[in-house]
Prior knowledge:
By secondary structure, the chain is an alpha/beta fold. The protein has nine helices and 15 strands. It has a nine-stranded mixed β-sheet, with helices on one face. It has a six-stranded parallel β-sheet with strand order 3-2-1-4-5-6, sandwiched between helices.
Amino acid sequence: MTVRIIHxxxxxxxxxxxxxxxxxxxxxxxxxxxxxxxxxxxxVAADIGVAADVSFGSLGDALAAVDADxxxxxxxxxxxxPLALTALExxxxxxxxxxxxxxxxxxxxxxxxxxxLGLILQVSQNYRNYPAPRTxxxxxxxxVLGELTAINIDFxxxxxxxxxxxxxxxxxxxxxxxxxxxxxxxxxxxITGHEAVSVxxxxxxxSFSKYDEEASAVITIEMEDGLVVSYRGSWLSxxxxxxxxxxxxxxxxxxxxxxxxxxxxxxxxxxxxxVTIRRPGRIRAKKVPLEPADMVDRVAGLxxxxxxxxxxxxxxxxxxxxxxxxxxxxxxxRSAASGRVEAVQRP
Length: 347
């Protein structure tokens, strides 16, 4: 079965979805594209060969004009839930970019409505779709390190050169916590199988930062099993840049597991994925074979979504499952503002 999709939100990252990701998944067929900005709509339509009569300025117009099975939403985060609810009420399955929303309560309304209607709401937590974190999840589940004692996560990038007036990222709400750390929070839940219960976030950006809100933070997370996680993330680091998934040191009674993932670049592939284990008393770490992956990143996520729509499968990162990652994200932002330890409030 080919899944017919309407793609909403074509600027920036959404345009990248349209030009590179969606054409890479043969099991989906674009039957309509939507963007309120005319020049953006026309540019993407020309690039991907979509006719003017299936190019629309609003999702409502598209839903009324074309037959579709699902809607893919890659618009700005403030529009995610309103657009998702519009699609769900029209009987369409939904794949939406992360974060699903800026608040857990708003996200919960979409997750609950999808369940009430028996429709799929999948969040594109694309970092899950790489072999390194999937390998690590299985290793930890099989007790490769015994009892865990610490997890340290480092993310370092430099993103401060563009003029302030031309770089939209500077104005994102919580550009580190909501736009980037949400990926790492989600991976943390995925690989450990546990939820976070409290968080303390300390923000201290330098005077040269062009960001309106936090671009760097040090965050301490307590998990439900008592494990304490240290997270250091920055868009303003002059240190050696990490891969997008960061660098992870996971320590336990039987040694240390290290992994990194999603090296990035023009092609989204697993060439930068690495997992190693160093046993007590050993200086050298041993590389671990990775689980095979035919597809990775957003392409894999879209294929998972298409299979779920066609076969009735339940995708891993549903709206409901994703609430734990959003709750941690929201608590970290509250802590950054309050200067206190904040409870992670999951619905």
